[in-house]
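Entry 12.
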Amino acid sequence: MMADGAALGGRIRPIGPVVDQEAAGRARVRLSDLAVAGGWGEDLDGAWPALEGMFAASPYLFGLARRWPEMLRDTLAGDADARLEDIAARTIALTGGADDMRSPLRRLKAELHLLTAVADLGGVWDLDRVTGALSRFADVASRAALSGVAEDLRRRGKLLTAADDSCGPIPGLFGLAMGKHGAFELNYSSDIDLSLFFDPERLAPVLAGGTEAQGLMNRVAQGVASLLSERTADGYVFRVDLRLRPDPSSTPPVVAVPMALDYYESVGQNWERAAFIKARAICGDFGAAGEFLQALTPFVWRRSLDYQAVLDIQSIKRQIHVHKTGEGLEAAGANLKLGRGGIREIEFYAQTQQLILGGRDPFLRSARTVEALAALVARGHLPADVAAEMTAAYIELRGLEHRVQMLEDEQSHILPADPLRRAAVAALAGQGDLAAFDAGVEALLLGVNQRYGALFEGGEELSSPFGSLVFTGVDNDPETLATLQRMGFSEPAGVADTIRSWHHGRIPATRSVRGRELFTRLAPRLLTALAQTGAADAAFRRFSVFFAGLSAGVQVQALFLNQPELFQRIVGVMAFAPRLARTLGRYPAALDSMLDARFETELGVNTGLFEQMAEEAEAAGDFEGAMNAVRRLHREQAFRIGMQTLSGRVGPEAVGKGFTNLADAVMRTLSAAALRETARLAGAMPGAVAVIALGKAGSGEMTAGSDLDLMTVYDAPPEAISAGKGWSADTFYVRFTQRLISALSAHTAEGGLYEVDMRLRPSGSKGPVSVPLSGFQRYYEGEAETWEFMALTRARVAWASDPEFATRVTATLEAALRRPRPGVKVAAEVRAMRDLMERERKAHGFWDLKLIPGGLVDAEFVGQFRQLQAAARGKPLGVSTLEQLSGDAALRDSWALHQALSQLLACAFDDRGDPEAESATFRARLAEAAGERDFARLRRRLEQARRSARKAFDRILPAPRDGSGGPSR
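Predicted 3D structure (tokens):
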């Protein structure tokens, strides 16, 4: 029989509809049998009208009553408040070690859950009483668990303190309840956010000799978490989350107080300040906990906030995407906690204003959401009607959240998408019409979302057109992960983790408070821009390398925020140009070149950069200094050319000239520096030396990836020696050439310049690296083969120590080309060389623009053949491939098309890029570079151009019918 009128069984009211009459009937039969056998059948019958709806809708609640019928009997028979006190008292009275407590704690949790659900659903307890009961039990369960783990340590001789020590089970160690637990707002199936800290000075005296404090504390944390979280046959107590501590991915589960204070003072974030609004000591050394929380007060409640700090606090709100028209707010599948219009928006609504205003007004520092809203009204910061609306919505949403969790004791905040399960939630909420229930939920969410959107209205949005971008807390926000997935990131969780780590100040760019404030604003722009490239993964990976490499980030981030067009271009580089992205990643200072007024100047216009290069190299003081000065300016100019190429501002001819002019400036500067260095080491040498450029460097058609084909020639009196060490001319100019090669190709702290190829010199790799001009003449008069004459068609003097000698060398080059070569079948030998290349160096697929039949090599072979013909006939000569092919339209057009694409691909990739594997945006840019509307048309045009070019090639250089025609001199 029920004890009196205060018995819970006599006070509960029916919840409304019974969602499943058959389930309710089965439950009654099963429980009636048990109740009659136990002598409390009348009590069950009296309470059944209220219980049947609960047990029909919630398999979990019926399971508790069926397994422990005496628990239901005692719940119904007693006063709800008195029973709560009894459960708490029995929990705190538990003694022994962890194993002794494991089963009793779980049984007590089941009693608490059944009591809370019946009192809540039966209309006896309001939300405040429900969350208070759940939170209070979490408090005493945590204390009991810590006591049990400490007792085990005491039994093993690790802990020297008494069980009833006034400073807690382990002096110096304390636990803070965070989040809803700390604010007495715990939900029905919530985990508990427990932050553990220890004071090393208080802890040290109670540890046995030789015990390492941090290691022991870590084991304590694991023991407490295991005791509460582990599922056994009796269930579990609470899932424990220890991550609401400083930088949880890199700190131990229990953090030393000095380390924690240093973290919060240096890199603590606003969301962590918001979290500490609700922090409350619940177990361990309460004295140490109080001192810690007092020390954190200036961090949580700042009396003085500048404008940027206020904006950064407001960013907590602005990261959530607000749909002011309410689109997408559907009851089915709605996340009542984290979704739009959910509980989090109400909490943020209060907390952001508390953080801004609470530093100067302690009245506003309430840990509880409803109380905080009321305090804001009392101080005139919030209209009463708005607070009333948000409070009512909060209470209703929390009630719905509890009912979702009561179905199966799952930590879920999502209204089921399945209509039957959602109808069960509706039934527990007293609603029998699912359509009306859904409409009410949607109106509720919409109202909250609209109020939330009006907070700090008019400021900068920190979400994205793609959706919310929230990086607060330690868990990945589900809405944010969905947003990142819509943006095109294949691993949203990894991206979110990286962004959160940057917010934590783990890279130099965000180590300062100002850096983190700026990054809060930059992050959504960055992610949106990355998504819009169509290559989000690759772009983010490359941007990460660049961003992590910045030695400081305030100026760069401010630059990106103030110059959005520049920022968009940088993100484009990250998406489409690994070569340029690598430059920025290794040398973030290259970004400075984009701020130089010369950066946007059209290529070909004299900006004074080459003169600056020569001046800085000469002023450097030594050879290595000159090399570094040249590398810095080369990197900036190459980056500039690459950016203008990728953006489509310049055509392929201008790009080729731009890269060649840059190489010429580098060769002029470093040749002069190498000559000065050689003279410094050996003394002055009478005579002159010239650097001859061949290949793409010679023809003025270099790309971003071109190497330098060079040879050097010199002239000196027969018996000349250097003034200092007496080096002969051949030794002196060989040493000069070696230093030049090193200056051009060596990697220094400022990077590299070019790969240098000297194999086109007389006698190739077998001969000296520098030859006298007379030796060059003799070689081409008697030894050079056809392929060497072909190479000579693109030769020109890039630098000479004496202008008159440069003129002589130029004349010598032309004379060598024009010298008659009777008996040589030039066409047959050129064709034989191309056939040999085709057999030994096959094209690597469709996008091998160089080696593919009908591509660059075919056209260049014909161009060089035409030059040899022109030289023999006394016609004008030129080094440009387009000039050489002026009479061969199909080959000229094919070469121009392939060269345009080659320029773009070389700027984008370090190695052979595959456009097929790139984003649609990049493929569109490639098509645009060729003047085509889309990528498919580009492919068709390439196929046609190659067929026509190859046909022309075969006509001009026909294949030998009998297979003969190998190269000869």
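Annotation: Residues 652-682 form the longest helix (31 residues). Confidence is low (pLDDT under 50) at residues 1-5, 965-969.
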